[in-house]
Amino acid sequence: MSLIFDPQRLPVLSVDDHLPAVPIDRLSAHALRERFAKPRIWTPELIAERPLGKRSPAHASVLVPLLERDSGLTVLLTRRAEHLSDHAGQISFPGGRAEPHDLSPVETALREAEEEIGLESTHVQVLGSLPTYTTVTSYIVTPVVGIVQPDFTLRLDPSEVSEVFEVPLAFLMTPAHHRRHAVGEGDEAREFFSMPWPSHDAHGSPRSHFIWGATAAMLRNLYRFLSA
Q: Is 4 domain-assigned?
């Protein structure tokens, strides 16, 4: 789907700095294993986008890879290749459409992660799944959360992914970094979150990874899950 607007040029309506960050002691691998093993009662904040067009719904899964680094957990994200027909150039989790031979959403997420970035399932400890999120392109996406051991080698499929990068989980679980936007007016208005990650390119020049849309929505639901 080609965007008819540039989300980075839309004004920021508000920032959720009035909400508390997830306490740091809940963001360790051990704490996340316990939370998924014994989840608390919670409600996802975001479940669906208003669809564009009349595409038939299709099931998909993404892997939310949490890497164990010395400084804490990081979230591995990808930038989709620019030539793709859906969500080209956007920041996303590794993942994709379910295939008939996939036995479960977890299997879809792990298969897609290996195909897209070469992350083998033997390096992933699946913790559990978050509620599905339906995208503007009518994909019903299951986010599968997993802890990833850092001793892996990535092999990017250039037909799917243009780059990968990591963002500290603590940064993404801090609502002061969650910005609200809207496009359109009245009944046609569409609201979305963004979580820009300030970084640097290979030459040390400043750049920003603009995390928004479905990826930001699923991260927001992860925030609600861990905050409960």
A: no
